[in-house]
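Course assignment 3, question 2. Fill in each field.
Student: A.L.
Task: Predict the tertiary structure for the chain below.
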Amino acid sequence: MSELEVRGLRKRYGGREVVAGIDLTLQPGICFGLLGPNGAGKTTTLRLCLGLTDPDGGEITMLGHRIPEQARTARARIGVVPQMDNLDPDFTVRENLVVYGRYFGCTKADIERRLPSLLEFAGLSARADAKIQTLSGGMKRRLTLARALVNNPDLIFLDEPTTGLDPQARHLIWERLRRLLTQGKTILLTTHFMDEAERLCHELAILDRGRVIAHGAPRTLIERHIEPQVVEVYGDGAESWADARGSQLSERCEKSGETIFCYTANAQPIVRELDRQSALRYLHRPANLEDVFLKLTGRELRD
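Answer field:
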């Protein structure tokens, strides 16, 4: 049985349909990514699945419970990490975990038994009695993640869990998430970091304007939607070079700001050509999920 099943989900605000017939299925033990530009409907979809917003149409079944009718029962087996940390600044690290556990009806004895493992998971065993204001951003984020596990949930919702963190903190969060997956937890992740989705997700859906426009494993989507090699070209004259030679040597060229992106199955002719152009710099790399995302959703800024 799937952990989460969504069929024909719809939600309208005013005259705009922000979720327009979404279908999703989360199998147990996987990390499922929900990607999309700002305003694509990701956060609204999460709120609908959690029963925090009533849908205008469609069906949601989570952990065998119908949502929103049985949302309260289902949420007892769910952990949620919101976009912004909402830890209680008046409590210590330990007290934040204890108080949150009591919301789920956990006894104090049960919470005390789980505290050492939760503090170890957060890397905060030595900071159990510290006030929240004394923690770094990465520590707060790890504590928020550990707090979401206080009820030993089967399904965990993560809404942009590493936004604002430095690379070291991001990598530590990724390691903790992989640990959860090895324990059989199921994760629904939203993120704007394509490398994060590519590293963590077994499966993902790309949303745009409330609809799923692509669905599959990250590597499958890259192979399906984009040429395998990319050459990024910079420097004075890059645009004129692309018009004269880049478009001839590659299957597709795109301009973004001062950069030319050349997409091709064979980058060697482009690289040889660029090695003779002293005024131009280039980066040759494999195609990635960000290339797919930008191709499908466009490069224009979304507000």
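Instructor remarks: The two ends are 38 Å apart (CA to CA). Residues 38 and 269 are 37 Å apart (CA to CA).
Grade: pending
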